[in-house]
Amino acid sequence: MAKKPKKPLEVETLKHDAVMHKNIPTAGFGKLMDKIISDGDRA
């Protein structure tokens, strides 16, 4: 016998009123990449 379909889960979204900065992951690696390039190391 087939199972009854499950009810969809309810998910609550949290939002912050005052966003201080945008999340740009690659920008966080800028200083690290500058150091690696200046040291001549390879990743």
Describe the protein in words:
The protein has one helix spanning 30-39. With 43 residues, the chain is mostly helical. The protein is built from 1 helix and no strands. Helix content is 23%, strand content 0%.
Summarize the structure.
With 43 residues, this protein is mostly helical.
Percent range of helical residues:
10-25%
Order of helices and strands: H
Count up the helices: 1
Structural classification: mainly alpha
Q: Would you count the extended β strands for me?
A: 0
Q: Note the beta-strand portion.
A: under 5%
Look at the structure and give the mean pLDDT.
77
Q: Using the alpha-carbon principal axes, give the shape.
A: elongated
What are the segments in which pLDDT stays under 50 over at least 5 consecutive residues? none
First CA to last CA: what distance?
Answer: 56 Å
Calculate Rg over CA atoms.
23 Å
- Oligomer kind: single chain
**What's the main sheet like?**
none
Chart the SSEs and their pairings.
Elements: H1 30-39
Keywords:
elongated, mainly alpha
